[in-house]
Specification:
This protein is α+β, with helices and mostly antiparallel strands. It has twelve helices and 22 strands. The strands form eight sheets. Strands 8-16-15-9 form a four-stranded antiparallel sheet.
Amino acid sequence: MSKQLFLCGLFLLILSFFYMTNDIIKVDAYQGEISIIFEFGTREYCYNTSEHELDTNFYFKSELSKHGRGGNHIERAKLLRKLLNMKIEPIMAIGYCFCGLDELILKLKDEIDCEPVDATYRFTPNKTPNFTFTKDRCGYKLDIDQLVGAILNEIEKTNSVIIKLKPQILLPLVKYEDIIDYQNVKSSFYTTFVVTNEDRKHNINLALDRLNGLEISPNKTYSFNALTGRRTEKAGYRPAKIIVDKKYVEGIGGGVCQVSSTLYNALLLAGVEVTEVHNHSLCSNYVDLGFDAMVNFGSADLKWENYSTHPVFVKANVEGNRVNVTIFGKDDGRTFKRVNEIEAEENPPSDEIFIDEKQEYTHLVNYTDEEEYIQLPHKGYVVRAFLEEYKDGKLVDRKFLRRVKYKPSAGIKVRGNIERRNKELDGDVINFWQKYKYY
């Protein structure tokens, strides 16, 4: 019995010594908690030494105290500065002096750091609106070395610190305000055609489809022929009227020159530099003299280049009997006007007349005393074309574009090949039937 009482008393003595020692460590090793609050926008992150270091583990707290990591804010600041002067990595130094603070700082960096986001645009010419945009967003980068320095400066003053985080701001390369003006209409031009000519309309639509939605980037040359491709039946083009050797004849891709001419004028009015253009040998009835743009794959092209620092965009479509080309882009305050001057004029030669022996034009003529134009006569002209530039409503430049010579062309008439019966006899017959039509 006496032996059991002895063992029990010894256990109580050891237990009381353990609790007494533990209380002493709490008092000696930690001389006041340290609080650090990080603020970033509406977010707040808190650090407190009491949450990380007041542990009941005897060995852990003894080690902290032995290496000087358990002192007040002034003592820890001295230790931190000493470590930094020794060129210790700041994140390692702060973690040594403040248990768990390195992990919080790395968490802050992970949450705050982000790459900037550029504003974007999308051009959809067949939809309304034609443009959609997304806004830009700044990026952030938290500088750990700078943050540790700020913590040190504040800890030297007080044990309760509020740090307003000021990460480096990373600006986007493309800003919303820089691209929103892309939806501005720089120019719009249209020409008209006869809607009953289905093959010509088909060719026009085919060429327009290959231009519609085009983005013209800065300092890049564009080719109409390259964009629209060879005018062949395999490519989907149909026979329609074209000009060959100063005459209108049937040819594959008729109507495409009307598309190139409409585009040419829209480009001029938008201030886009045209680097290659050719005229027809005869006048075109869908555009002003001096402003047509003849194209022929392999020999004649329409080329242009955007010399501005921003892209421009092409919307091309048919509405009813109108070929429309609209150019969108950033407004630079300039407007343009097309001007032509006629130097000389030449009347067409006499009409050419042929008999409709194969009766191909019976919808126009039947009898030998009936004639109808299948190709109108055209005068010849010598024309000078100019482009005037205006700034704030004032003329600032007048650029000579080209001197064009159009050949005169004879009209072509078709005459019927059926001899009409004697007109007097025809009249007697008509009178006879009118007299007895009621009998």
